[in-house]
Amino acid sequence: MADTSLPIDYQALFQALPGSYLLLAPDGTVLDNSDQHVGVSLRTREQAVGRNIFDAYPSAPESQRDLAASHEQVRRTLRPDIMPLLRYDLERPAEQGGGIEERYWQVTHFPLLDARGQLQYILQMPQDVTAAHRANRAAAEAQQALDESQQRTAFILESLPVLVWTNRPDGTPDYFNNRWLEFTGKTQQEMQAIDWTEITHPDDRPGLLAGWATALADGAPFQYEYRLRRHDGQYRWLLIRNSPRRDAAGHITMWVGAANDIHEQRQMVQELLHANEHQAALSEQAYQQYQKAESQRETYENLFAQAPALICILRGPAHQYEFVNPRYQQLFPHRQLVGLPVADALPELKDQGIIPLLDNVYQTGETFEAHELPLQLVRDASGELRTDYFNFTYQQFRENGQPAGIMVFAYEVSDLVRARQVLEKLRDAGPDAPLA
Prior knowledge:
By secondary structure, the protein is of the alpha+beta class. It has 3 domains: about 10-130, 2-Layer Sandwich (Beta-Lactamase), CATH 3.30.450.20; about 160-260, PAS domain (Beta-Lactamase), CATH 3.30.450; about 310-430, Beta-Lactamase (2-Layer Sandwich). About 35% of the residues lie in helices and about 30% in strands. The chain is built from 16 helices and 18 strands. The strands form 4 sheets. Strands 1, 2, 3, 4, 7 and 8 form a 6-stranded antiparallel β-sheet that branches. Strands 10-9-13-12-11 form a 5-stranded antiparallel β-sheet, with helices on both faces. Strand 12 and strand 13 (about 250-260) form a beta hairpin. It is elongated and about 125 Å long.
């Protein structure tokens, strides 16, 4: 049996406890601390015992105020008090390299009562939670960055003048942007449950269903032109393209689709095709040019880098190119755009009124749209100006409630404009006019 006649050294037992403890008199005088507390406080026991806690362990005024309030709470209620997270930095000794070490603590004060129920001691138990606090802070910062990225992506998706949607790997639709809701007049929930055969033109249903089924089976991009009924009952021609997104293992994780309303262009092409028997060659050429332009503009590998249009993001009041998709860069293969203001990257625009338009959109937030706007551009290394035509939209985007830049969405319609100009000349000359 153990010899119980030997006296127990409770002070040595207290100091050896496997935890960080500080024993205080009711007035805050340091009476003793555990060896582990000595280690984490970076002060010897002799430097602390017999001194007021705030003298023994100096800290910022706000920390002292919170500690004093917790002590008073224990003295008043005779109940344990858990403090809010406390920052208390430690000064390393010179032999440890010196300097200030940022530390965070979860401090609990326990009342120790005598036989009469009077407060005899206050036991402080500080827990070093620096690592956990930093981890939580890093997680919060990462989540904030993720939220901002998602908000930015959502803003761009909803701002693009294109009908964008996504499908699950099995082809079930799970998202439509606001352009779809405006086109169909339906809610997001209604769109996800919609029967597409009901609003697709009867003549186009077989080809649409067969093409989409083949794309799903082969995991290949799908492109198709068909007529879809708008909310007002009118069938409109759409050019759609749906592409699969794959993970590192090659498995399809989602489908991303986009559609453009090409009704007016289609009608113009049809008019060209049927204008005159003698104009068949010209009409076919114009249609092929249109198909080529649409195919280039509608090629999607993803929503941004491979968007079926000319897209760029201009940052700040100087309209500095922050992002340029490949289609936009192809206009100027000989020039560096990203990182330069528009006025420096494309100096020929200074005298064409584009810079004041950008300034107005950035300052007022009013969206600007242009249809078949002629611009004189240097398109290659020759340095020669040539006139081309563009449809484009300038739309301000904001960050933290302030103007941050302009999103530009455009597509070139030079071939269509020139084709129409040819058609108008032919109309003026009469049906029997020889082909140019």
